[in-house]
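To: structure subgroup
Subject: Chain for Friday's discussion

All,

I'm putting the inputs and outputs inline so they're searchable in the archive.
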Amino acid sequence: MRRGTLYEHIHEKEGKNPSPLPLARRLKIAAETAEALAFLHHDTGMQIIHCDVKTANILLDENWTAKLSGFGASRLGPEDLDSKSNTLTEKSDVHSFGVVLAELLTGLEPQRNLAKVFVGLVEGGTLDKSLDEEIVEGNFDIVRKAADLAKRCLKPKAEERPSMKDVAAELNGLVRTMEQHPSEGGEADISPSPKDTGNLGGSSASSASVGDIITSAL
């Protein structure tokens, strides 16, 4: 992908002079990734658990459209797996996505205890002091809502986490709000262009094209 990975844009800024990631763009990338995961979990006819959701596996094309990659660890699994066992379920992907959201908001590296650190920032009311420098001027009400969503994704008990469908719906709502208020940390036009649809990371992924990507990756 022309713009590389999301990880590179968040964590490897020094010396590469990457384009900035304002809040609206980050939310759009998050929403597209959430939609791709929701498709895998609920709309393929045979549930697919990604098992390796992380910023290094989110690719960005020339139009900043997110493409979910890294299917090497993916597995098939029914939705009623025991969430109290060590078996990976779709809620494992939800937790990993919560870490992605935490990275997008804070710019912190995805170390083992990032989830605990992030939840502590939110619950301690100090998140505003730990935001990534590229979004500190953004709409903090939107940031707070995104942070609350990330916190719910990071719940220790899998059954208390939202589904990826619910996550995608909330993020798309935040994206629409940012589109309506581009002067508050948003961009005038962050919607994907028509040529970007029909892929796993896009918001209008077709069953055929998604199936091709998944089949070749598993």
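Points worth raising on Friday:
The first strand starts at residue 48 and ends at 49.
Helices lie at 6-11, 23-42, 90-106, 114-123, 140-153, 164-180, 207-217.

D.
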